[in-house]
Structure formats: structure tokens, C-alpha cells
Amino acid sequence: MKTTPLLLGAAVLFWGWHTDLLPFAATIALLLEGSRLVAWRWNVAAGDFRRVADGCALVFLALAVYLYSANQTTRAILTVIQWLPLVTLPLVALQVYSMSDTIPLNTVFLSLRRKAAPTPPRPWRTINLAYPYLVLCLAAAGAANVRGARFYLGFCLLLAWALWPARSPRDSALVWGGSLALVVLVGYAGHVGLHDLQRHVGDRFVAWFTPSPIGEADAARTRTAIGEIGALKLSDRIVLRVEPGRGSPPLLLREASYTVYASSTWWAARAAFESVRPERDGTTWALTDDVASREAATISAYLRDGRGFLALPTGTTRIESLPVTTMERSPLGAVRVDGGPRLVAYRVRAGPASSLDAPPGPADLAVPPAEASAVARVAGELDLASKSPADMLDTVAEFFRQRFTYSTYASLNAGDREPGATALGDFLLRSRSGHCEYFAAATVLLLRAAGIPARYATGYSVQEFSRLEKAYVVRDRHAHAWALVYHDGAWRDFDTTPPGWVNAEQAAASIWEPVADAWSRAAFLFTRWRARERTGGVPDGLAWVLIPLLILLGWRLYAKKRVARLKTTAAPRVLITPGADSEWYRIARRLEDLGMPRQPGETQSRWVARLDGAGERPLSTESLRPILDLHDRYRFDPAGVSDAEKEVLKSGVHAWLERHQSA
Amino acid sequence: MNRLRYRAFCLVSSLDAWIGRRFTPAGLIVLGGLVISAVLGIDTNQTVAYQAFTFLLALLAMAMLSAAFARPRCTASRVLPRFGTVGAELAYRIVVTNRTRRTQRGLLLRDTVPPAVPSFDAFLHTREPGGGRRNWFDRTVGYPRWSWLVADHRTADVREMPLGTMPAGEAIDVRAVVTPRRRGRLQFTGVAIARLDPFGLFKSWTTLPAAQSVLVLPTRYPVPPVALPGARKYQPGGVALASAVGESEEFVSVREYRPGDPLRRLHWKSWAKTGTPMVKEYQDEFFVRHALVLDTFGTVGSEDRFEEAVSVAASFACTIDTQESLLDLLFVGPERQCFTAGRGLGGTDKMLEILASVSLCRDKPFSVLHRSVVDHLSSASGCICVLLAWDDARRAFVRHLRTLGVPLLVLVVTDADVSAPLDQGPMSDQPECVHPLRVGAIAEGLAAL
Lengths: 663, 449
Fold this sequence. Notes:
The complex is a heterodimer.
Chain A: H1 7-19, H2 22-33, H3 46-70, H4 73-87, H5 89-96, E1 103-104, H6 105-108, H7 110-114, E2 126-127, H8 130-143, H9 150-163, H10 173-209, E3 221-223, E4 230-231, E5 238-244, E6 252-258, E7 260-262, E8 265-267, E9 274-276, E10 285-286, E11 294-302, E12 308-309, E13 312-313, E14 316-320, E15 326-329, E16 335-338, E17 343-350, H11 369-382, H12 389-403, E18 405-406, E19 409-410, H13 423-431, E20 433-434, H14 436-449, E21 454-461, E22 464-466, E23 471-475, E24 479-487, E25 490-494, H15 501-507, H16 513-535, H17 538-570, H18 584-593, H19 604-611, H20 624-636, H21 643-662
Parallel strand pairs in A: 18-20
Antiparallel strand pairs in A: 1-2, 3-8, 4-19, 5-11, 5-23, 6-13, 6-21, 7-8, 9-15, 10-14, 11-17, 12-16, 14-17, 15-16, 21-24, 22-23, 24-25
Helix pairs in contact in A: 1-2, 1-8, 1-9, 3-4, 3-5, 3-17, 4-8, 11-13, 11-14, 12-14, 18-21, 20-21
Chain B: H1 2-22, H2 25-40, H3 49-68, E1 74-79, E2 83-85, E3 90-98, E4 108-112, H4 120-125, H5 136-141, H6 143-153, E5 156-158, E6 160-162, E7 171-180, E8 184-196, E9 203-217, E10 251-256, H7 268-274, E11 278-282, E12 288-294, H8 303-319, E13 325-332, E14 336-341, H9 348-357, H10 367-376, E15 382-387, H11 392-403, E16 408-414, E17 434-438, H12 442-447
Parallel strand pairs in B: 2-9, 12-13, 12-15, 15-16, 16-17
Antiparallel strand pairs in B: 1-3, 3-7, 4-6, 4-8, 5-7, 8-9, 10-11, 13-14
Helix pairs in contact in B: 2-3, 8-9
């Protein structure tokens, strides 16, 4: 191995350090670097290299398929990359312990293998796998996503080590070191800047221009059905399963909140996301430092493509058992995750009041001009201005409970509405009937008009306990909107929708709901079983897939060899030597017996010519010539001789031998 | 669309060549690492590979920047041999002079030949041998064919070599080796000298003007001694062409009459004495005069067959002993060409030079060669025809030569994938005088003559 001593071992250890596979890494490093200490080497044929490469490829495929089936795509890819140094180890180890420093290029490139052998045959180009393996180790270490400076510094150190032997002889070590230091600094500044840039760009643009899938929250805006005509229909699909912790379950699970209302849409202004770092185990995420929280619930939810917004009770301080790669939170309390499995079941700890949401600002008191007059009129009617905040809240809640009804059907004709009135104004002043979005929006604006900071929150209401699931189930139709008010120095949920809304929604349920629920339960259990298997430890589950595969591979390799061996013993290679059974050799033996052996390197014809007249009893070689001619044709002419000519040869030999036996 | 594809392929090829020329093996690994880290680190939240990306980017940028400064000032000139041969290494010297006031070390040298860029026409019409076996995608996109075409158009393989230490103001000799890939004039455009960046990743080349050329001869194969079929036809009359002009016949002996000897050479007195017809024999009485006919009429796609045909002709030109005989090379280039070698009339080397420069003739029909050969045949004792095809026109040509009674050896160069035996046609009564030669197995074919 012509790599710099100990470099490969160091790179492997670096990989193990980052991927928490240090015991493996130490073994591999010993294995690879140990080759310098042992004096023996295997004589490995090209076919063996190919077989081992095939084996590695097979393991790689199995690993990829397994991880893909158990994980969400991004996570699967990243995990596969992290395991690559282990998967490709057999090939590298084989090279390290083989006679040659390199392996043929067609071992690793299937396309080259299919290529016809070149004419004239020349050796394949070869490749030293040590350096690609080094790159692989560094890439795998990078995929482990260990934040902090240790990856960067280690990477720079290893690269400097690798680059030192390749440096130009023109420049001094000082120039080399100075240039490298500069590169390290520029690279550092570059990656910090790049990360910030991506966060900035992601927050500013992606959130605005990416359309959200139906049923998923959009942290930047939410379009309400306020003002739309017809029945609001939501499905019975179960979207969340909530197992309450100690005490009763949280009533409301929030996905996002918004500050600015304009033409039936709520917007989240100035709500840039910032990322949350996981704790050491990678699945615990502390949102605040509050330790006085209690376990609120365990929530199971599906993530589409491994990403989405978490439904969390107000006051969430800490999320546990959530295997996602990234988590981001906005100052408006939305928590976005990415790179997770299809199904997550996370434990939530929560305190009494929200500490996730940013303190109120001017936007939390703004009433849009279009709604200002209707809101002001109602606020005037309720005489909110003269009341204390606590009384205000009571008054508003009472107001909506007493004078409003819940309805998912807006039978409004355009003509019914007063000229110039908005949908929300009409709801407040005339119809006094609507769904939760009306109540939430009206409450927010009414409280704002009275000087209490308020926000519009969306999420789910937890209502229905399922005996089948032994947990609360939250269906699509339990999607809810409510107000968040800033009261007593904290943000609190404030739901003014009449309590009867759940029953109203329940009445609209399909008669097939129990069947659908059972199916949903089965699917949930299956997905959870697979997820448990995965969280139970990748190596465990992997082993069950990999061990039979490896056994199969080993057997195939062995069987192949055995077949090859069997073939060699059963059917030795037949050398086609036409004319080997020629009768002429009998004459040759006779001549040798007569004490006239052929000299080494002498051709048959020269031999015969030399014998002419030689020996104790002169031989007549004249008669030998036609026989020899025939023999030569039989032996060397590609066209061969006919059967008749063979007979002639045979009889000629017989006649000659007869003559010389009797003589 | 084809034009666009052609442009894109040209771009890819030149980028590929640029990368190959500029990056050292370590640089290539760093470049590969850069690409991998860019892909892995595309989302800076998912992995930390973006940190590796910025470091590698900075490293390469630094390498490229620093290599661009302080280029060495040198001059170079080549000492070239007269000829090279296709496929054989051509070694020569390059004298490099250090024009700076400091000792230069760690430089690299590389001779430069024009880049291989196939023409649009060639891209559209050239058929790749075995290209039909490629999959649908490769056939439609055509990149494998393109890379084969680029490899086929290379004029020479040049190698990079270290320059060693050059003391200030002094000249050093460097042994350079190129392997010519195409016959004809190999043009060297200049001598390129590179310095490495401090990390040893990137090479910055400076091309010194040194335009020179060398003639590359076609490949020659070993040919067994040619015995043209039929009785050798001796004929006087070559003398006028010989170096000694005039009546230089010198009486040597009297020998027995052989069929074909002219009657005026009969030595009547000896006949009277011996009772058998005798003739006078002169020293340089008759020249054996072979005609070597090279077929230059190929269609698009017959380039490799043509190259092999030229090689076959060159092999014969080298092998036939022109000390005692004449060899006429007949072919049609821009016009009808006949070149005679032997007996001091211009040597084999001249003939090889001509063969090095012969090209396909696409604007004339085969009949031009037919007429040219028939006009010439009166003085030829035998004729070797190297043909590119075995179609009706060529069969008619061979049939015509047979009717004129000329002993013939017909060699038909066929494509590599042709395996069917050749239909003898007009040569069916002399099957040993017509041979197919497969591209890629010419040497074997010639050895079987």
C-alpha cells in the first residue's frame, strides 16, 4: 500500500468518531494499517476481486433497500452513506493484503466489465482504492451531521496529512503551510456564510413560494373559508393519536399561529425559522430550558415525505423520541421538522403557559381597516374599553357562547349581506353563525380592538376517545382554529367556538367510519412495528436481513470456486494436437531403438536426411520420405488429411516396419 | 438538434481534456471530493459535508490562483527524426533552455499536438465498429460513439514528463516520447511547460512556440516473400528507367531456352552445337516489375478499411526487394498517380512517404483506377491489388486484368465484423490468389499468404 502511513487508519477513526461506530472503526483501522506489519500477502486473482466487489455491491443494495423501506428517503440515503466504509471494507482489505497495490479498474466499474477484451490483450488499467476509501470515510463522517468545529478541523487536518506528500517541490514547506492556513480560514468563513445564506434564503423564499400540500400547515399564511358559500366538508381520516400523559389530555394541539389578517387570509409576518439542536441522543429536542414541565402526551402522527409541522400543546418545552434530522421553530410557535420517518410518535412535555411564542408586538394589536368598523361597533356594544383584561375575556367568551351558533353551512346570498360589509363583519353583526374560523378571527380582532394582544392559531382539537385505539384520536374534521391571547404575561389558548361544534361535526360522520378506523388502526400498527424495529437499532434489524444474504453470498462464492475446481479435475483442458496419434511415431521409436536418436531441436525431415546411409545397416530413407510428408500434413496442415490418406500412412508405416524388422 | 448535440459533445470533450491536462491525480481526487461534498452538503442542515465543500473549494481556488503566477520563462526546440510510424513510440529530444536567473525545479513538460476534434460531418456519418450492439440510449444520444470518434481522431498520444532541475540560463536535454496515431504529417504546435501549485493539485501550462512536424508512416506488417502466381514474366525494357541510362546490357552466359524468351535472343551457334535451343543471357536483362494497386475509392465509413489497405500496401512496398526489381505504386488521389521505386529510382522510403499522405478519393468513380492500371499493365509482370471492397466494379476490374493475362494477387480488406468467406468471383479458378484481410487481423491474414 503506497498511501501515507497511518493516514487511512486515522481517516477511519475519524469516521467512527463521528458516526458513533468507534469500536468498528478501531478494528478496521487496525486491520488496514496492520498490513504494514505483516510480511505475507495473498495472491488474489482478478476474478476474486470481482467476486468481492460483487459481494460489496450486494450488501450495499440490501442495506439501501432495507433502510429505504424502514425510513424516509433522505434519512435512508444519509444512513447508507454513513455505513459505506463498512460495506466497502472487504474490497479495500483485499487490496491491502494482496500482492498488488492496486486492483483492476474493471472490478469496480461494471460497464468496463462488459466491454470486450481488447485485442491484442493488454492489462486493465488499475486503481489504488486507498484514496477513494479515504474520501468515502470523510464523506461518511460528514453525513453523520455532527455540528461544531470538530468535523471541520479534523477534515482539514486529515487533508493536510494526505496532501503533504503531493506538494510541489518548487515551493518551501513555509509557503505550503501558509497557503493551507489561508485555505482553512477561507473555508471556515465560507461554510459559516453558506449555512447562514441557506437559512436566510430558505426562510425568505421557500416558505412563500412552495405550495403546501393539503392538510398540512403553512407557517407563513393560512387561507380561511371565511366568506365562502356552501358546506364545509372535512374527512373522517385519523390524523393524530394522542395518549395523554399524567392527567387529562391537552384540549388543543397547535400547528401554527398567525398575526396579520387580510381578505380572509391570515399571515405570519416576520416569522423567520431558526433551527433547534437535538440533544446528544439525537431524538430529544429541548425548546426551552424550563425543567418544571410535566409529561403532557405522546402524539403519533404521519409525516409526509418525512417533513411537516408538529401539532403541539401550548406550553411545550421539550419533545422526546422524535427521530428527525432537523427541527426549526418560528417565533410564532410553529415547529417544523424534516428528515424523519413516515410515522413519528413523540412525547411532549409542557408547562402551564407558552414560552415558545415571541412576546407581543404591534402586529398583535392591529385590526385591518376593512374590519375595523364592525369590530369597533361590537366592542362598543360590549363596552370592552371599561373592563379589566380578565373581565374582557369573560365578556367576549360569554358573548360568543350566548349569541352565536355553530354552522358549517354558509347559506349566505350576496344580497343578504349589508352593502360594504365584509364576511367577518356580517358574521359579527348579522348572521352570527359560522364555523370555527369565524369565531377565532372575530375573537382575535375583537380582543385586539380592546387592547389585548391576540393571535390566530390553527391546529386540532382533541375530543374523541377511541376504545379501539385506547387513545384519543384526532380526525381531519377535528381541525380547529382558535385565538391566542397574551394574558398575565404569557400566551394562552382562548377558544370561543360554541362547545356544540364537535357534536355538529360528529353528525356529519360517514357510516363507514368504524370500518375506516379499523383499517387505519391496522395500517398504524404495521407502520409502528416497522418504525419500532428501526428505532430498536439499525444493526439488529439489519443483521436479520444481512446475515442470510452474507451466508448466501459466501455460499455462492464458495460454490463458484468449487465448481471451477470440479471442472478442472473432471475435465482437464484438452490440448488439440492433431496427428498426435500418427503412426509415424512407431517408426521414430524404431529408429531410436536402432541407436539413431533424434538430436534435440532437429526436425523430423532433417533427422531422416541425416540417417540416409548412416547406421550399421544402411537404411533406405527414400521410402520414408512419402510417409513423413503424409505425417507432416496430418500433424501440421490446418486442412488435415483425409481418411484414405491416413490409411496410406498407416499401411506405409506397417510396410516399412515389416521390412526393417525382417532385415 | 444534431448541431446542438455536436456542440455539447465538443464542449464536454474539451472540458474533459482540460481537466485531464490541468489536474494532477491528487487534484482529481480533490475535485471528485468537491463534487461529492457539494451533492452531500446541498442542505446545510442535514449534513456537515458543506464544510468540506467550502474547504475543498477554497483549496482548489487557491491552487489555481497560485499556479497562475510566476510562470517560468523558457525556450524549447525539438530534435526530430525523419519518420515515425503509426502505433510505434517515437522518441526524440527536446532542448529546453532556462531563461530565468534562478534554478528551476519541479517543472513538467509536454509536447502539444492539435486537439482531436471530429468534424460535424464525421460525427453525423461515421459508423462505430460494433456500435449496433450498444443499448438504445447510447445509440440515440451517441456519446459513446463520440468518445470513440475523438479517440480515433487523435493524431498522437503525448506523455507528460518531469523536466528535472534546470540551472539558471542553461539548457537541458529531455527525452520525449509520443505515439503517433494517424499517418501523414504530425504537426507539433509547441512545447508546453507546467508548474505546480504549492499543494501539487493544479498544473499551470505555458506553451512555448516550437512548431515542427514529422512524417508518420503507415503501420507495416510482416509479409512473406511474394511469389506471384503463374510463370514469372520476364521482359526487357526496364533499362531505360534504370540509373545507368543507355545500352548497359552485359553478356553473362548462355542458357537453355525457356518458353517466353524472345526469338532474337536465341544463340543459334550453341543450338547447333548442343542440339537444344539456347538463348543469350544478360546481366540486367529483365526487371521484375510489380504493380501495386491501391484502391482509394471508399465510401463514408470505410476509413478504417482504407487505413489498413494503406498499411498493407506499405507492407508490400517495404518487403518487395527493389534492389533487383521495380515496383509501381498505382492509385488515384486528386489525379491518377504512378510512382516507381527500385533499381535506384527512388527508394522504399519515398514510396512510404507517398503512402503516408494518400487519402480517400470520393469525387471519382472506381473506373478511373481501372483505366489507369490497364494503361500501365503493358510493362508490369505481376499485379498486387489491395481493394477496399469486392463489389461488381472491382470484380469487373479483376476480370479484365485476368483477360490480359497478368498474374494477380488480390487482397480485399473487409470490416472486422465480416466473417463470411469471400466469394471468389472472377478468381474462382485461382482461389489461392484472392485473400480477404479482416480489419484488426491484418497481420494474421498476411501471414497466411
